[in-house]
């Protein structure tokens, strides 16, 4: 039995019908020209052996008696492919919007905890002749970084499928754990967790005391910039109690040109991503006549992994960044985001070594489950100011094409989690030469998510057209007024292979 970390277990305990805690990905595939017969059968033939051989895909939950602690993972027999591998046929005309609607529908349903916590659905019937694959897995099993690593092992690196999988083994007898074994494992893990916390306490004290010392001008500067991040966000139509229905939209932007925007303005890639999202959200809320005077706040995951660490556990923390959405000038907005993100990164880097991802779980299932249910039933999200208005995550992905049963993956859009009071999640993956944005929304909070996807493209174009800054131009004075800077030169947008937005 493999024990579950405190952070992974939390994703199980706070899950409700309104707030599923799984993540996913939508892959758009270019069907092989010489492919004959059912592509679904080709996918089964190709993926089933790998899925059957992988301990990750065979792992299921082993609940503790009375749910007094986190469950463990036990390796079951080869997974039931008839259950886990599914097929959906889109109705005519088979548009990209129909595909995105179907994926939103699939993302709305809870995973069955009586089975390993994953599903793969092949979606056919697109008018383009392409085929799609939707992959769903519980966040208790992995995070974004480990999901990317898992995809690299599951899919092929070339069209011929040279990474030949082993033959499917004969079904084995599932591992059974008695009550004594489960309880013993829980108490042993708890003792180890308390031991780790005790050993890390001196480091925590040193880090916190160092962060609180205002002994340098730099520290004062960072502290000043942090103030805008650590403030409640304004109320918006997105920050409400949510239903269990999900909407999904996706779009793709050229990675090279986004990097160029950063280079022309002294901004990092993530800064430009946040600025693109900020501009889109500003336009969307303006369109709804709901743009607040106060800046929106984004919650941004930060990986705690060391280089090369691909373990299938959640190893991340969250930070808060002001999106400067109250600033109308896109150039000034970008620079404000750079400063806010830099301060947040400095804080996270200083605290990175002492942020725990594992902690004792005795009694935690009851506590977190009860609090999650109470928060949902009470509708507190309708009256409390949001800590953050939107979740934005940028996950580095494969830089070489991947293939599934001979079909090239041309689009790779992630889906993530929304919660009460946080009805929108924008997660993106860098794949080959594009940034693929996946927008997951609670349908009642953001019913027209396609409109926001279109505004992401518009926000990108706005930043692309800004004049290049010179070293002697102060960042704060790069734009003359709040009306917005005019472009010096109109730049042509680089097209991606596919850019699915609303149709």
Describe the protein's architecture and organization.
The chain is of the alpha+beta class and 503 residues long. The chain has a domain at 6-183: 2-Layer Sandwich (Chloramphenicol Acetyltransferase), CATH 3.30.559.10. Helix content is 36%, strand content 19%. The protein is built from 13 helices and 14 strands. Strands 4-5-6-1-12-11 form a six-stranded mixed beta sheet. A six-stranded mixed beta sheet has the order 7-14-13-10-8-9, sandwiched between helices. The radius of gyration is 23 Å and the shape is globular. It starts with 5 loop residues before the first helix and ends in a 39-residue tail after the last helix.
What are the key terms here?
503 residues, alpha+beta, Chloramphenicol Acetyltransferase, six-stranded mixed beta sheet, 19% strand, globular
Provide the fold topology:
Blueprint: H1 6-13, E1 22-30, H2 39-53, H3 55-58, E2 59-62, E3 72-75, H4 81-84, E4 85-89, H5 96-106, E5 118-124, E6 131-138, H6 144-154, H7 179-212, H8 217-226, E7 246-254, H9 255-265, H10 269-287, E8 297-303, E9 316-322, H11 330-351, H12 364-378, E10 390-396, E11 403-404, E12 407-415, E13 424-431, E14 434-442, H13 449-464
Parallel strand pairs: 4-5, 8-10, 10-13
Antiparallel strand pairs: 1-6, 1-12, 2-3, 5-6, 7-14, 8-9, 11-12, 13-14
Helix pairs in contact: 1-12, 8-11, 9-10, 10-11, 10-13
